[in-house]
Specification:
Two copies of one chain form a homodimer. Chain A has 367 residues and is an alpha+beta fold. The first copy, chain A, folds into three domains: 2-113; 122-187 and 212-242 and 290-355, Tumour Suppressor Smad4 (Sandwich), CATH 2.60.200.30; 249-288. Helices cover 22% and strands 24% of the residues of chain A. Chain A contains seven helices and 18 strands. Chain A has helices spanning 8-31, 46-51, 61-69, 102-110, 244-249, 253-267, 275-287; strands at residues 55-59, 78-82, 114-119, 122-128, 168-169, 177-182, 190-191, 206-207, 214-220, 226-230, 233-236, 298-302, 317-320, 322-327, 332-336, 340-343, 348-354, 360-365. The first copy, chain A, has a six-stranded antiparallel beta sheet, with no helix packed on it. The longest helix of chain A is centred in the N-terminal third of the chain and has 24 residues, at 8-31. Chain A is globular and about 65 Å long. At the A-B interface, β5, β7, β8, α5 and α6 of A face β5, β7, β8, α5 and α6 of B.
């Protein structure tokens, strides 16, 4: 790693800090005579969740998403502690000062100096027309974070699909968002190429991959179907409105400045275009993209919509209670919280909505 | 296809139209006693290009990109004919009326009623620190568009890399853009899941994939290096300023309307906020993103920049002569014109620039 220019010493140090923080949390819990099971990703499963009265994630926001992904019980609290404040924003975790004084957080919980916060989550129904009536043949592989190798063989036979009549509720709940789009490296071949300069000894690998725009049809709140082409569709919760959705929809002050300049010229306005106004407008606009995690509504937005003779998008974003998507994609997926993906190819229909029964129970400590 | 809800009849019809259009082009050329070799994608190679005096692509913009990708001779004209006007914008092709009267285009060429248009292209240099001195072991596979199967085995041995000292000029020239970002489905495992409702007969495949933000460092026009985290970096030509770059950077009138509303409130302005003004400002702004294909300058833009305590991006977009990128990515690639990709992982450094020697020769017919 060091040879490649990576900061190995920094990596090691962050691991040391994280380990120390985890020990602190465990010690704080055990000193209150609370029974603690400390598990890593691989060992974290629904049986462990069933055993627990509450779940504490020790890591960053990603770890919190993973922790939440196995909790389906509305009354099982999940608390996140940010053990990696250098690298993670921790917006799903407790304020960062509790990382080093977790006992203080526990005291507040004992004294009732907190309130329950229910973060609404999204559920997904999937159905498809014309699926062949045969079981899907799968290979079960252990989930391995360290498995860098691309030597992956997927022997799933394409035309053996289950005969599913009616929409199927998928066993996941999105805490941040569901994203629908084409995979980047969907089909590729590896070719060796000889450089013109004749470097026969070095043959870099070329992957001929297709980056395709995603083509689908969308219906919002049972409205009319609209054909769209874009770089993907994002449907988020209030929690997720701070995450990827925010990055898709926020504007840069560079862009706001340019827009206001053009408006000033066209509207012949007497507007003092200073940095202060530009920054204020930018901040206000970006803040309007955020809303409470507890609101049972979704925000959908289309990433890089392609508008031309063939495709239009009358509504590129907005709030909704229900979003239906019909895939016309070649090799797309639905990605939940950036961690779980489902095939979503031509013929598949997804129905996306919030059901308050799926809410995740977290805590908001009094300050 | 029809069972899945796809429009098979429509697909067949478009193929019929395309085939007819191709015949028309070939007939028009042969009636002028021009020798024509008609090749499909698989047969199109540098030998064929060498044989030809000029290349005519018959398809959409994608076919034009493919045609251009094998032409490195500045004086070998490449002409695009849009045989699929229903599906392709054809902004790289001749105006759509020549599709049905190609002989008219040929007459203009004979009479000199045209001018040469040189579309500037981007070249890429790649270098890396600490690459092991051993040849890369590759499997050569035929490029196959019909190959849907995911049964892909990549036996490339990770640690056998060439010892390349100094930057390596890659044998590609980007006509539209170079895009740098993390692959979506970089590492995944397939797990079978039993539904709670106990549908044992149907086990959908879950791909646990990681969608990561891209982490890299960027230096513009030999300026200071800046760490950035985003959904990727796009560097385009004037030709490409109408393509993906446009979709990344354009604003929706919904957003402009909201921005002007906020500006009006904050600036206490007496501005009539009507649809006409909003549309005008939106169009002007979006048009400012486009520039001539013949200008030897690049436009870089960062897609969904992540700005927080750790990462900032002082310049999210702009024109430049040279862009250098140092990868800190896990499993990223550089994608050229959406069709060719190169590994671009932690330790690799890319230098991106325009050299007028790499321009693509096309024609602009007089109207």
């Amino acid at each position: 790693l060091a040879l490649k220019g990576s900061n190995y010493a920094g990596l090691l140090e962050r691991h040391r800090i994280h380990t120390k923080n985890v020990e602190h949390i465990v010690d704080s819990l055990r000193s209150e005579r609370i029974e603690v099971r400390l598990v890593k990703r691989r060992e974290y499963n629904e049986e462990t969740v069933r055993w627990a009265d509450a779940v504490v994630s020790a890591g960053g926001d990603g770890t919190m998403l993973l922790a939440a992904s196995k909790v389906f019980d509305k009354f099982k609290p999940v608390i996140g502690v940010n053990t990696d404040p250098e690298r993670s924003e921790g917006h799903l975790c407790l304020p960062v000062r509790y990382t080093h004084s977790f006992h203080e957080a526990l005291q507040k919980l004992y004294r009732g100096e907190f309130r329950w916060q229910w973060r609404q989550r999204i559920r997904l129904y999937l159905e498809g027309t014309g699926i062949n009536p045969a079981p899907v043949d799968l290979h079960e592989q252990q989930l391995s974070q360290e498995q860098h190798s691309r030597a992956h063989i997927n022997e799933r036979i394409q035309d053996q699909r289950s005969d599913i009549s009616g929409p199927h509720l998928l066993p996941v709940r999105a805490l941040n968002e569901v994203f629908i789009g084409e995979s980047l490296s969907s089909r590729y071949a590896v070719c060796s190429v000889l450089f013109r300069e004749n470097f026969k000894s070095c043959k870099p690998s070329f992957k001929f991959s297709l980056h395709r725009a995603s083509y689908y049809e969308i219906s919002v709140d049972d409205g009319p179907w609209e054909k769209q082409k874009s770089s993907g569709l994002n449907v988020c919760t209030g929690t997720g409105s701070k995450a990827w959705s925010y990055n898709i929809n926020k504007v840069a002050h560079q862009a706001v400045e340019e827009i206001l300049k053009i408006a000033k010229k066209h509207g012949n306005l007497n507007m003092p275009l200073n940095m202060e106004l530009v920054q204020k407008v930018t901040n206000d606009y970006n803040e309007s993209l955020l809303y409470s995690p507890e609101e049972p509504k979704m925000f959908f937005s289309i990433r890089e919509p392609i508008v031309n003779r063939v495709f239009s998008s009358s509504r590129q974003r907005g709030f909704s209670s229900k979003v239906c998507v019909r895939s016309r994609c070649w090799d797309a997926c639905m990605v939940v919280d950036g961690g779980t993906s489902f095939e979503f190819n031509d013929g598949a229909i997804a129905s996306i909505m919030i059901n308050t029964e799926d809410a995740l129970c977290t805590v908001l400590l009094e300050e």
